[in-house]
Write a structure and sequence with these properties.
- Helix content is 40%, strand content 22%.
- It is built from five helices and seven strands.
- Strand 1 (11-14) and strand 2 (17-20) form a beta hairpin.
- Helix 4 packs across helix 5.
- It starts with 10 loop residues before the first strand and ends with a helix.
Length: 153
C-alpha cells in the first residue's frame, strides 16, 4: 500500500483553525483516532490518550488525527476542544467516511498507528496504551521493525 497519509484531507483542523496537512514523514509514528462524544468508552480513553500524547511528545515525534463519529458539528467541536491533536474537519464528511471504510473500526474508540512512511503498524493501539502505558511505543517500534523486515523480503 502507498503512504497512508495520502488518504487524509489536504487540510486538517488544529484547534479552531483549518491548516494544510503536515508532512507526516517527520513523525516516527502517527495515529488515526476514531471516536465520538456520545460514546462513554471514547470519553474515558480520550483522557488516557491525551496523557500518553502529552508525555510521549516530550521525547518522541508523534501526532494523532481525530476521525469523528459525532452526529453534529456542535458535539464534535465541544468534544474536540479537549484534545491537543489534529482532526479531520467536520465539513470533510467524504474523508471521514473513506477513512472509516478503509480502517474498518469494529467499535470505537479505535486507534490505528502508522509509521513515518505511512505504513500500517497496528490498529490495536487502544489496547496497547491501556495495557502497556508508555511502553506501547516500544511495542509499536517492534511491530514496525518486523513489518519493515517483511516488506524487504
Amino acid at each position: 500500500m502507498k503512504n497512508f497519509s495520502q488518504f487524509l484531507s489536504e487540510n486538517l483542523q488544529e484547534g479552531n483553525e483549518i491548516k494544510p496537512k503536515p508532512d507526516f514523514s517527520k513523525y516516527q509514528f502517527w495515529g488515526l483516532y476514531f471516536s465520538a462524544s456520545w460514546c462513554p468508552p471514547c470519553r474515558q480513553f480520550t483522557g488516557m490518550l491525551k496523557n500518553f500524547y502529552d508525555e510521549i511528545r516530550k521525547s518522541k515525534t508523534f501526532e494523532i488525527v481525530l476521525v469523528t463519529h459525532d452526529e453534529n458539528e456542535r458535539d464534535f467541536m465541544k468534544y474536540y476542544q479537549k484534545m491537543p491533536w489534529l482532526a479531520i474537519p467536520w465539513s470533510e464528511k467524504m474523508s471521514i467516511s473513506y477513512l472509516t471504510r478503509i480502517c474498518k473500526p469494529q467499535t470505537i474508540p479505535h486507534l490505528c498507528i502508522f509509521d513515518q512512511d505511512g505504513n500500517y503498524v497496528t490498529c490495536g493501539a487502544r489496547d496497547d496504551i491501556a495495557m502497556y502505558g508508555m511502553k506501547a511505543w516500544n511495542h509499536w517500534e517492534d511491530i514496525a521493525e518486523e513489518r519493515r523486515k517483511y516488506r524487504q523480503k
